[in-house]
Amino acid sequence: MKKSLLPYTLQYHSHERPSVQQHRFRHPDAPPQPAEFSGSRLNVFQQIRITPKRLKESLTTAEILTLAILGFYTVLGCIFSTSVENGLMYIVLNCCFMWLQCVLAVSVSETNAGRTLRSLLIARRFFLLPAIYFIYSQSHLYIVHINPQDYDTILAQWDFALFGVYPTHWIHQFAHPVLTEFLQICYFLYFWIPIGLGIEFYATRPTIYYIRYALYVASVSYALYLGYFFMPAVGPCFTLHDFTQWNAELPGILFTEPLRALVNIGSGASTATPQLTAHRNCMPSGHTMVTLLNMMIAFRWKSRLRWCYLVVGCGIIVSTVYLRYHYVVDLLAGAVVTIVALIGGRLLEYGLRRIGFVHA
C-alpha cells in the first residue's frame, strides 16, 4: 500500500531535538542523545561519502534549487569565460559552493549531527543565505551578454500609460527629509528581514517551518534572478532623473546618504560611470517580491514581530518608487512572479518526493 506523504513529513520534521521516545522516528538532521555519538570527528568525516543515493536521501527542495541555479551559472561561466571578468574564478567558486552544499547535506544526515557537530546543522540550515547573495553577485555578469538591451524606455512608457504621469515625478510632491530618511532606512532593512525571520523560525518552531520558509525564499529569489534576463533595466533614477543630483533632490537627515551609498556599491552604481556599470536588476522588483513573501509568512505563521514587518514592509514597497529605484510596473510584475514562484516551488517539492527525494 502506498504511504501517505503528509504523516511522513510531520513525523520526520516535527522537532529539531526529539526525546528518547522519539528516537526511532528522528529526522536525520536531529541531534541524537549523547550515548549515540561515538568516535572522533575525524572518523565521522572519513565515513562521509557523497553519492547520488545519499544525496537523494538528504537534500531538501531549497538545496536542490540552489544546486540547480549554481549549475546554471557555472554553465554560463563556461560559455562566457572569455568575456566576463574573473569568469574562471566564478566557475571555481560555483563548484565549491555546490560541493559544500552536498557535503553539509550528507554529513548532517550521515552523522545525525551529534552534539559535537552541532555547528554542521547550523551551517547547513543557514547556508542558503550566503548562497543567495553569491548567486546574486554574479547575475549581472551574464545579463549584458545574453540580453544587452535596456528596457527602461519601455517600462517608463508602460508606467505613463497606466497612470498618465511618471510615478516617480508625481510622488516627488510629497518629498520631505523625514519621510526620505524613514523610507531609505526601510529600503535598507529589506536585506535583514529574511535573516530575522529565518532565525526566529529556526529557534522557535519545528524544523518543518524553517525548511518550508527556506523553500519559499529560494523559489522567489531564484525566480527573481532569472527574471532579470528578460527585461534588463537600470531604473528611473538614471533615466527619468539626474542621478548626480539624487542627494540634492531627495535629501534625508542622518542615515540617508550613507545607506544610499551602500546600496549603490551593492548595485554597481558607485563608479565614475554609474549608468554603465549599474546592475540591470530593476525588472521585476526584488524588494517587492521578497517583502511580500515575508509579510505573508510573518502573519500566516504568527511571527512575534509581524506588525513591525508590516510597517517596514509597506515602507519598503513605497520606497522603491519614492526613492526612484523602480518603475511601478516592476512592482506589479514582482507580485505576479512571487505567486508563480511559490506555486512552482511547492509543485517542485511534490514532484521530487514522488521520484524518491525523501526530504524534499
Task: Write the SSE topology.
Layout: H1 5-13, H2 41-46, H3 52-58, H4 61-79, H5 87-111, H6 118-126, H7 128-146, H8 152-163, H9 167-170, H10 177-189, H11 193-204, H12 207-227, H13 236-239, H14 246-249, H15 256-266, H16 274-277, H17 286-300, H18 306-322, H19 328-354
Helix pairs in contact: 3-5, 4-5, 4-7, 4-12, 5-6, 7-12, 10-15, 10-18, 11-12, 12-17, 12-19, 17-18, 17-19
- Main sheet attributes: strand count, strand direction, barrel closure: none
Tell me, rounded to a whole number, the average pLDDT: 85
Molecular shape: globular
**How many extended strands?**
0
| Count of DSSP H/I helices | 19
- How far is the N terminus from the C terminus? 21 Å
| Uncertain segments | 1-42
Q: List the domain count as a whole number.
A: 1
SSE series: HHHHHHHHHHHHHHHHHHH
Helix content: 55-70%
> Over the alpha carbons, how many angstroms does the gyration radius reach?
22 Å
Proportion of residues in β-strands: under 5%
Return the structural class: mainly alpha
Structural write-up:
This protein has 360 residues and is an all-alpha fold. The protein has one domain. Helix content is 66%, strand content 0%. It has 19 helices and no strands. The protein has helices spanning 5-13, 41-46, 52-58, 61-79, 87-111, 118-126, 128-146, 152-163, 167-170, 177-189, 193-204, 207-227, 236-239, 246-249, 256-266, 274-277, 286-300, 306-322, 328-354. α4 (61-79) packs antiparallel against α5. It is globular and about 60 Å long. The model is unreliable at 1-42 (pLDDT under 50).
Brief overview:
The protein is mostly helical and 360 residues long.
